[in-house]
TrEMBL record:
This is Uncharacterized protein. It comes from Flavobacterium azizsancarii.
Amino acid sequence: MANDDLEIPKVHFDQNGELLIIVSESSSKDDFDFFQGKSNIRNKKLKKRFANCTEWIEFPSTQEMYKILNGIGNIDNFLTTFDGEPFEGMTVRLFNPRTKLWSIYWSDSNTGVLDKPVVGSFENKIGHFYSKDVFEGKDVLQVFRWDARDSKNPVWSQAMSDDKGKTWEWNWYMYMSK
């Protein structure tokens, strides 16, 4: 799969076990410019997580992103259909000019709440964004990866780890085209 050739940077924790996010020096408010406008997406989502599953569900979607807050943020709308029902997701991304870190928040038409953000930055057109989360009652680490090396066909992917980042399971890929 595209971008599996990329390594996930080592996850760091402070002495209290809190996740430490290492910022890239090149991180900027323009990191997501490649994603502006409308994209057609081919999604590939693992049918079941943390179950040694090898079955993938594939489905189409669209997404449209625009900048907000004088360029230090952006919003996108993700539209698809699950089991014949319309589904809408929304992402809010905010760049902190002081820390040079992005915080990415997700909500959807099923929950109506903003998830905890994944936080990170881009380096050489590849972004890694992390959070601690809970999946089916167990603590996990989550990473979102944006691979924008091909700005016309970026790839977003998500992985989770249930062993503090020693191993990762990729569970969703989004192959975008303009």
